[in-house]
C-alpha cells in the first residue's frame, strides 16, 4: 500500500512516500481504509512533535471505511464509516484504536470528517474539560485563523460565548466575522490587551486560548478577567519561554493550563472521547458547528499541502484526500 513516513532531519522534518505492508489490527484496533486525513501543524513543522529517530508513519487523524476488526473487537462492523485520531493516517490503510473511532455524521463530507477528530477533541479539552467556558463569557483566541483557532471560535459560539480573535491578516478576520467572530484585532504583535479590555467593558477575557506561543504570553495575562483561565495550545512563534506576572496571577486568581496529548497514554487520550461525543459532536452533526476546511489536496500533493500550511495561507484545516 502507499504510505507517507516522517522523520526529523536537522532543524526540519522530512516526508517520504513509500510502499508499505498492510498493517494488521491488534486487540482493541480497527483496520480502516482511509479516504482522507487532516494535516496538523504540530506534526509537520520543525520543532514540533517529530523528534530524532527512525522514520515513522505520518498523519494523526482521518476518516474512512472499517475493513477489519482486531481480536476481541465487536464493532463497528466492517463497512462502517468512521473518523478518529490514529497514527499513520497518510496511508491507504491505517489502524485506529476502537475507543477513538466515531461514526461520521451523514451531514459531513468525508474530507470534512477527516478534519474533525484531533482539533475538535483538543477544543473540547480546552474549552469544556479544562476551560469551563460558559454562555455569556468572553473567549480570546490568539491566532484565530489557525485550525484550532477557528474550531475554538465555532465551538464557543455554539456554547453561547462571545469571541475575540487576533490575526495578522485583515482578510482572514473579515472571513471569521462572517463565521461569528464578535471582535477581530488585526495584529502580529503583543499589543492587544487594551483592545480586549475595551471590547469587554474593562472586564477582560474569561478564557484565553494562546495558539501563538511565548511572545504573546504576557499580553494574554494582561487581557484576562478575574478568575480567568489561560490555555496554551501551541507555539508557532518558536518562543518557549515567557515571564509570568505573579501579582496578576495571585490577585486575579488566574488559572494557567496546557493542552497537549504529547505525554498522555492511549488510555488517557481515549478517556476524553465519550464526553466529546456527548457534548460537542452533536453540534457538529446538526450543523450548529460547520468545520471549516480551507483546501483539499490530492495524495500526491502532500508537499504542496505542507507548504500551504507553512506559509500560513490557510484559514481553518487542510486535508489530504487519500482515496475517492
Blueprint (SSEs and pairs):
Elements: E1 2-9, E2 12-19, E3 29-38, H1 41-44, E4 56-57, E5 61-69, E6 81-85, E7 93-97, E8 102-103, H2 110-114, H3 117-129, E9 138-142, H4 147-158, E10 162-167, H5 170-178, E11 183-186, H6 193-199, E12 205-210, H7 217-222, E13 224-232, H8 246-251, E14 255-258, H9 266-271, H10 273-279, H11 281-285, E15 293-298, H12 302-310, E16 317-321
Parallel strand pairs: 9-10, 9-12, 10-11, 12-13, 13-14, 15-16
Antiparallel strand pairs: 1-2, 1-4, 3-5, 3-7, 3-16, 5-6, 6-8
Helix pairs in contact: 3-4
Mean pLDDT: 95
* Number of structurally distinct domains: 2
> Uncertain regions: pLDDT < 50 for 5+ in a row?
none
Write the CATH fold name of the largest domain: Quinone Oxidoreductase, Chain A, domain 1
Radius of gyration: 20 Å
Major sheet characteristics = 7 strands, mixed
Question: Based on helices, strands and strand pairing, what is the structural class?
Answer: alpha/beta
Residue share in β-strands: 25-35%
Distance between the termini: 15 Å
How would you describe this protein?
With 324 residues, the chain is of the alpha/beta class. It folds into two domains: 2-116 and 291-321, Medium-chain alcohol dehydrogenases, catalytic domain (Quinone Oxidoreductase, Chain A, domain 1); 120-258, Quinone Oxidoreductase, Chain A, domain 1 (Alpha-Beta Complex). It is 27% helix and 29% strand. The strands form three sheets. Strands 3, 5, 6, 7, 8, 15 and 16 form a seven-stranded mixed sheet that branches. Helix 12 (302-310) links the parallel strand 15 and strand 16 (317-321). The chain is globular. The model has no long low-confidence stretch (mean pLDDT 95).
Amino acid at each position: 500500500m502507499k504510505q507517507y513516513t516522517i522523520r526529523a532531519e536537522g532543524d526540519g522534518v522530512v516526508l517520504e512516500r513509500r510502499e508499505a505492508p498492510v498493517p494488521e489490527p491488534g486487540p482493541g484496533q480497527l483496520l480502516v481504509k482511509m479516504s482522507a486525513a487532516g494535516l496538523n501543524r504540530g506534526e509537520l513543522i520543525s520543532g514540533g512533535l517529530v523528534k530524532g529517530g527512525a522514520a515513522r508513519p505520518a498523519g494523526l487523524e482521518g476518516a474512512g471505511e472499517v475493513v477489519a476488526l482486531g481480536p476481541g473487537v465487536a464493532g463497528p462492523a466492517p463497512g462502517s464509516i468512521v473518523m478518529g485520531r490514529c497514527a499513520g493516517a497518510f496511508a491507504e490503510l491505517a489502524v485506529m484504536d476502537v475507543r477513538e473511532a466515531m461514526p461520521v455524521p451523514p451531514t459531513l463530507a468525508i474530507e470534512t470528517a477527516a478534519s474533525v477528530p484531533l482539533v475538535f477533541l483538543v477544543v473540547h479539552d480546552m474549552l469544556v474539560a479544562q476551560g469551563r467556558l460558559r454562555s455569556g463569557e468572553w473567549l480570546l483566541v490568539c491566532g484565530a485563523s489557525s485550525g484550532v483557532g477557528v474550531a475554538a471560535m465555532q465551538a464557543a459560539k455554539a456554547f453561547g460565548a462571545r469571541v475575540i480573535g487576533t490575526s495578522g491578516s485583515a482578510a482572514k478576520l473579515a472571513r471569521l466575522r462572517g463565521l461569528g467572530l464578535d471582535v477581530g484585532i488585526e495584529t502580529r504583535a503583543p499589543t492587544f490587551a487594551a483592545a480586549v479590555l475595551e471590547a469587554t467593558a474593562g472586564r477582560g477575557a474569561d478564557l484565553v486560548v494562546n495558539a501563538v506561543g511565548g511572545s504573546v504570553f504576557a499580553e494574554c495575562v494582561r487581557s484576562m478577567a478575574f478568575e480567568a483561565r489561560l490555555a496554551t495550545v501551541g507555539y508557532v512563534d518558536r518562543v518557549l519561554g515567557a515571564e509570568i506576572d505573579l501579582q496578576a496571577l495571585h490577585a486575579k486568581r488566574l488559572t494557567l493550563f496546557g493542552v497537549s496529548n504529547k505525554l498522555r497514554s492511549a488510555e488517557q487520550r481515549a478517556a476524553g472521547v465519550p464526553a466529546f461525543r456527548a457534548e460537542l459532536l452533536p453540534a457538529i452533526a446538526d450543523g450548529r458547528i460547520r468545520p471549516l476546511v480551507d483546501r483539499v489536496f490530492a495524495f500526491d500533493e502532500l508537499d504542496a499541502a505542507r507548504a500551504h500550511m507553512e506559509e500560513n495561507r490557510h484559514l481553518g484545516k487542510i486535508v489530504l484526500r487519500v482515496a475517492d
